[in-house]
Design a protein that fits this description.
Elements lengths: L2 E3 L2 E3 L9 E13 L3 E13 L2 E5 L5 E4 L2 E10 L2 E14 L4 E17 L2 E4 L7 E9 L4 E10 L7 H4 L18 E10 L5
Parallel strand pairs: 2-7
Antiparallel strand pairs: 1-2, 3-4, 4-8, 5-7, 6-7, 8-9, 9-10, 9-11, 11-12, 12-13
């Protein structure tokens, strides 16, 4: 037995195959006279025989200190696929004011065996940032932005037993709620003269 870990009590694995991956990415950046700048990129990753941490069948648990954690083991899945898309944009509204935005999306699925597939663990939900910035030619700036994420509802079975993702670590956990965080920043540059 290997011992306590962040997602459960890990038992010794059986025979594991090597994980192999193939990844591709494509992107495009634009700059229209310094007024509109942005980009978009797409990435795809294919994993053959991905190494996974899986729950041991039969609701097995092991005590780790004062916690009762699910028994897990490392195992190979058949294959996994991850698609991701990211975009950013900055629009100048004159000499001092600009709007900016960023968004990121990822979707991962793992085929565990011939009859079973599930979401890939720890894949973040749709998330982004949007804001406005005022800058006075390098002397000072002020920025108001909102950082957000949607609810993380595509959970792997092991994610549901992770107290950092599902506080009650129950099978009925629907995942963390979405959030929006408002950020106000400002600064003053040193006077070069």
């Amino acid at each position: 037995v290997r011992g306590c870990s962040d997602q459960g009590f890990e038992s010794l694995p059986g025979q594991l195959d090597k994980e192999r991956s193939l990844a591709a990415e494509a992107g495009l950046r634009v700059d229209l006279f310094g007024m509109l700048r942005g980009g978009v990129s797409y990435a795809f990753t294919y994993l053959d025989a991905p190494l996974l941490r899986r729950l041991v069948p039969g609701d097995a648990f092991q005590r780790c200190g004062n916690q009762l954690l699910p028994l897990t083991r490392r195992d190979n899945g058949e294959h996994a696929r991850v698609h991701s898309l990211e975009a950013d944009l900055r629009l100048s509204l004159g000499a001092h004011v600009s709007l900016f935005a960023w968004v990121s999306w990822a979707h991962g699925t793992v085929k565990l065996d011939a009859d079973d597939s599930s979401p890939l663990g720890r894949v973040p939900p749709l998330q982004g940032l949007a804001g406005v910035r005022y800058e006075s030619r390098g002397r000072y700036f002020a920025e108001l932005a909102v950082r957000w994420a949607l609810r993380q509802d595509r959970l792997a079975p092991l994610d549901r037993s992770d107290a950092r993702i599902c506080a009650d670590a129950a099978a009925g956990c629907q995942g963390p709620s979405g959030y929006a965080l408002v950020r106000l920043r400002g600064g003053v540059g040193a006077d070069p003269g």
